[in-house]
Amino acid sequence: MDALPAAAPRSTPPDEAAAVDALGRFVAAHRTLFVLTGAGISTGSGIPDYRDADGAWKRVPPVTLQAFTADAATRRRYWARSLAGWAPFAAARPNAAHHALARLQDAGRVGMLLTQNVDGLHQRAGSTGVIDLHGRLDQVICLGCGACHPRAEFQMSLLRRNPGWGRHMAAVAPDGDADLEGVDFAAFDVPDCSACGGMLKPDVVFFGQSVPRARVEAATAGLHASDAMLVVGSSLMVWSGFRFARMAAAAGIPLAILNHGRTRADDLATLKVQGDCTRVLPALAGQAPAAGASAARDAAIQPRA
Question: How far apart are CA 207 and CA 30, in angstroms?
Answer without folding.
Answer: 34
